[in-house]
Design brief:
The chain has helices spanning 25-32, 56-63, 85-92, 106-119, 126-135, 196-209, 235-247, 270-280, and strands at 7-10, 41-45, 48-50, 72-74, 100-105, 139-144, 150-152, 155-165, 172-180, 183-188, 214-218, 256-260, 284-287. It has eight helices and 13 strands. α3 packs across α5 (126-135) and α4 (106-119) packs across α5. A hairpin with a 2-residue loop joins β7 (150-152) and β8 (155-165). It is of the alpha/beta class.
Length: 294
């Protein structure tokens, strides 16, 4: 892959799409049409990933994108579809040329520290893996905080708050504003509607820098309208979100928007989801597919 080419390693939610154990009409149609989604993750370039879920190794093999140069992973939160022990187990069997640095919330780091402390003496457990990998210098965890920028591999990264809970006490998922050689990108999964704090931050940022170049938003519930305080987005809420971002000048006619993290609880096919966005969204939206390169 090109050095700056980004790849969607997965665009599905926690249960994948279709859910392998589900026989509903939506899942049957998805199988018939070979419309499949692994759990959401992204390879931003050769050295940075977003999330470290259970399917990234399979996606790497399937889409021909090796992960051996990855040095930085932005973790949205500690739910197992975004940070998974099976993927860490591969690292325990890998001769690594450099450590991988993981960035996640303070609360997420605290949860991982508790898991490590409680399981480090139990061979084969998640905590044992984490302890072994850290002692070997293969992985390093870094706590990051909302609205406090940090540097990762030459990219300026600013976390944003969400209302989506993680495994840790008081943990909520982080979204990431990434400023790099391809412009300003916002990766937003898992999240519900942005509150005033995020909108004020992005409005001030846009006043100084202009509109975002690329926005990648979760679209978990698609056709199913969810409560306003839900920690995931549906199609109608996405359109509301895009209008808010355009109102504060964080999004304009040149911004590319992609949807990821889609589940089978909603009944849109890929084409139906795209058609809805074409008709209702105040943005240039593309419903992403696994393996899509941008």
């Amino acid at each position: 892959m090109m050095a700056t080419e980004s790849v969607f390693l997965g665009t599905g939610a926690a249960e994948m799409f279709p859910n392998p154990f589900c026989g509903c009409a939506v899942c049957r149609r998805a199988r018939e049409n070979r419309e499949t989604r692994l759990r959401a993750a992204m390879l931003l370039d050769g050295t940075m990933m977003i999330d470290f879920g259970p399917d990234v190794c399979a996606a790497s093999q399937h889409y021909g994108v090796p992960l051996d140069r990855v040095e930085h992973v932005l973790v949205t939160h500690t739910h197992e579809d975004h940070l998974n022990e099976a993927t860490f187990s591969v690292l325990t069997m890998t001769e690594m040329a450099h450590p991988i640095h993981f960035y996640l919330s303070e609360e997420g780091c605290a949860w991982l520290a508790d898991v490590t402390a409680s399981q480090k003496d139990c061979p084969g457990s998640f905590g044992w893996m984490l302890a072994s990998l850290q002692e070997a210098g293969k992985i390093v965890f870094h706590a990051v905080w909302p609205y406090r920028p940090f540097d990762a591999g030459g990219k300026r990264v600013t976390p944003l708050k969400t209302n989506h809970a993680g495994n840790g006490a008081d943990e909520t998922a982080l979204n990431y504003l990434i400023e790099w050689e391809r412009g300003a990108w916002l990766y937003a999964a898992d999240t519900g509607l942005y509150g005033e704090e995020n909108l004020r931050f992005l409005e001030a940022w846009a006043r100084e820098h202009g509109a975002l170049d690329t926005v990648i938003f979760e679209g978990t519930y698609g056709s199913e309208k969810m409560p306003r305080d839900c920690g995931h987005m549906d199609a109608a809420r996405l359109c509301e979100q895009f209008s808010d971002l355009r109102r504060i000048a964080a999004l304009d006619g040149h911004t590319r928007v992609f949807l990821t993290h889609i589940n089978q609880v909603q009944h849109f096919s890929h084409a139906e989801y795209q058609d809805y966005m074409n008709r209702h969204a105040d943005a240039h939206v593309t419903v992403a597919r696994d393996g899509m390169r941008i």
